[in-house]
Amino acid sequence: EAPAPQDDCLFCRIVAKEIPATVVRETETTLAFRDINPQAPTHVLVIPKAHHRDAAALAAADPALAADVLRETQAVADDEQLESYRIVFNTGSGAGQTVFHTHAHVMGGRGLQWPPG
Ligand code: 5GP
Ligand code: ZN
């Protein structure tokens, strides 16, 4: 059974269209929209519509949905014609996670350093 939307979750509210977002792709189970504070020429967030707090929780609870999210990150990279890009799941506040609804950052369109710091 899919987890219920959380009233206090920003990304659940974007899924519910209570908060506007620039949506670039949508499937039955996922949504992709532009980051409000882009850190690269392409900076898109791909989320499962269902609420899971981070990538680890998503993978454990619903691996098929995790695969949907991963597939959509590749679709965004194709749509944006990115040759080189980065997919990031910040997991935990120590790694910079600020929104606790799983999201993949798809970033590209400029050179990216490794390690990211
Ligand atoms: P995190 O730091 O949790 O990995 O990433 C959260 C991301 O969500 C940040 O890159 C931030 O800019 C983005 N963000 C925060 N609030 C909003 C919003 O209201 N709309 C959109 N489109 N992105 C947001
Ligand atoms: Zn949520």
TrEMBL record:
PROSITE patterns: HIT_2 (PS51084). InterPro entries: Histidine_triad_HIT, HIT-like, HIT-like_sf. The active site is at H103. SUPFAM superfamilies: HIT-like. PANTHER family: HISTIDINE TRIAD HIT PROTEIN. Pfam families: HIT. A motif (Histidine triad motif) lies at residues 101-105. GO terms for molecular function: catalytic activity. This is Histidine triad nucleotide-binding protein. Residues 10-117 form the HIT domain. It comes from the Bacteria. Transmembrane segments: none annotated.
